[in-house]
Design brief:
Residues 109-195 form the Carbohydrate-binding domain. Helix content is 21%, strand content 26%. It is of the alpha+beta class. The protein has helices spanning 5-29, 35-42, 56-62, 70-88, 116-119, 256-259, 342-362, and strands at 96-101, 128-129, 142-148, 152-160, 180-186, 194-200, 205-210, 220-221, 229-234, 247-255, 275-284, 287-290, 293-296, 303-306, 322-327, 384-392, 395-402, 410-413, 418-420. The chain folds into three domains: 63-88; 96-327, Immunoglobulin-like; 341-420. The structure holds 2-acetamido-2-deoxy-beta-D-glucopyranose (NAG) (5 copies).
Length: 427
């Protein structure tokens, strides 16, 4: 049976509004803490004005003058967006970037980003504070470009900086304790076996594979080697306060062979239109000049600036990174195109987060979907055909079937692993 899209949208809007109103009323009606105890000791309390029971129409009329309030408008717009997504399945995209194949051009790894291959392509957006765009804008500009050929992913970064310094010279040490630039790749969008490569202005590298995010008890495997070729260019001296710098640039060539380590896949290089979860990070410490040398200010924490904000101060949440798409097409000829897994992946992650939130309050997971706070696109039957939750050994396993019948079922489970079809993870 085909449902009427307008009716669907209206139903969903009403449901969303009712939920919102319910939450607000529930909040207003909550019992003040410790009321009984206090009334016993101190006698009379100011009487609480009970809400009159009113019809929906009366309630709406009572607050009609509040509809211009920006917070309420904002809330309503969000509710309407969520409602519309139930009909269009047009789930929000994070920041994204199209990586164009080099074709006949070449890139020499010398730290200069001035070859034709680099000039031809645009930059990513400027980095923002790790916690989000509403936090103070970074003091310095950072942007990235990418290209690929049949063996490597190329990354070029522009890093604005007045005081270029670096101290760490040993491989696989705590490079982020210097001012550093980091690249993170989850090639399968599975949240597991993702790679992190950090580099400082001396070109010292720390490269690790994470079995899982740290929040899911992941372990950093530092024996993994990226085999990255890299070069740094600095517009002046390093570690020398006598001359202020303007910027440094990083140029990297990352072999696909290493980026695919630990994951099962058919192709040795990305396919046209392949999408990866990716983020870029910059750690920035403030310095002072002591005895003619830069000294790290130990009384201040580092600033963390990123391409796609995960919304919290934790860069190890691959499900909140940006997306890059590999294209074997002429430069600037296309924009990012989400694939048919995107809506299913999102639904899985929404249910994953709702389960974690439910457990934080109730002490256990649930297999009752109606107890989880989920956006309406998951239930509208247009995007997701069926959602299943199974509980086992104190964990959960979620299955989402796409409305597109040809797509394999998507799954996720307690440790944030996401996969389609048969389970692929080894070790
Ligand atoms: C509520 O208001 C609408 C529009 O003004 C009206 O059509 C409807 O009959 C009203 N409902 C009740 C229960 O009064
Ligand atoms: C592609 O677009 C970028 C801007 O995003 C521009 O700088 C670049 O020159 C364009 N490349 C070509 C080949 O037109
Ligand atoms: C780098 O190390 C040197 C030698 O230990 C030290 O003097 C300097 O302050 C360090 N640089 C920063 C920015 O901390
Ligand atoms: C890119 O497209 C060309 C022409 O269609 C093809 O010969 C080449 O194999 C493709 N390369 C990749 C990496 O897909
Ligand atoms: C799920 O929870 C809802 C709301 O509490 C309840 O009405 C419903 O019976 C539950 N379903 C199952 C299968 O337990």
């Amino acid at each position: 049976m085909k449902s009427n899209p307008a009716a669907l949208v209206i139903t969903v809007v009403i449901a969303a509004l009712a939920l919102g109103a319910g939450l607000i009323i529930g909040y207003l009606l909550r019992k003040p803490e410790g009321q009984e105890a206090r009334s016993g000791i101190h006698g009379e309390l100011t009487p609480v004005k009970l809400l009159r029971s009113t019809t929906e129409n009366e309630t709406l009329k009572e607050c009609s003058d509040l509809m211009d309030n920006p917070d309420i408008k904002n809330y309503l717009t969000k509710a309407r967006m969520n409602a519309c997504r139930a009909a269009t399945c047009n789930v929000e995209l994070p920041r994204n970037y199209v990586v164009y194949h080099l074709d006949t051009d070449t890139i020499v790894i010398d730290g200069n980003l001035n070859e034709k291959a680099w000039r031809d392509v645009g930059w990513t957006e400027s980095f923002v504070d790790v916690r989000g765009e509403n936090f103070p804008a970074p003091r310095f500009e950072t942007r990235v470009k990418m290209r690929w050929d049949d063996s490597n992913l190329y990354v070029g970064a522009y890093i604005q900086e007045f005081a270029v310094w670096a101290n760490r010279t040993l491989h696989d040490t705590t490079i982020y304790q210097d001012n550093s630039f980091q690249v993170l790749f989850d090639t399968e969008q599975s949240n597991h076996k993702y790679k992190e490569i950090s580099i400082n202005a001396l070109g010292t590298v720390a490269d690790i594979m994470l079995t899982r995010p740290y929040m899911d008890d992941g372990e950093p495997l530092s024996f993994w080697e990226s085999d990255v070729l890299r070069a740094i260019q600095i517009d002046g001296p390093i570690n020398d306060p006598r001359r202020r710098n303007q910027h440094w640039t990083v140029e990297m060539s990352l072999p696909f062979k290493q980026l695919f380590a630990g994951v099962t896949r058919e192709n040795e290089m990305p396919k046209d239109k392949e999408i990866w979860r990716t983020n870029f990070v910059r750690s920035e410490w403030q310095t002072e000049i002591v005895g003619g040398q830069y000294h790290k200010r130990l009384d201040l924490d580092a600033d963390w600036w990123v391409w796609q904000s995960p919304g919290v101060a934790n860069i190890h949440l691959p499900d909140r990174w940006g997306l890059i798409q590999f294209r074997n097409a002429s430069v600037n000829s296309t924009s990012f195109q989400p694939d048919n897994k995107w809506v299913v992946t999102n639904a899985l992650l929404e249910v994953y987060r709702a389960e974690k939130a439910y457990k934080a309050v109730n002490g256990r997971y649930t297999d009752n979907k109606t107890l989880l706070q989920l956006p309406p696109y998951i239930f509208s039957q247009r995007c997701i055909r069926d959602l299943g939750i199974e509980l086992d050994w104190g964990g959960f396993r979620i299955t989402a079937k796409s409305a597109e019948k040809s797509l394999q079922d998507g799954h996720t489970r307690t440790d944030r692993y996401v996969w389609f079809g048969d389970q692929k993870e080894q070790f």
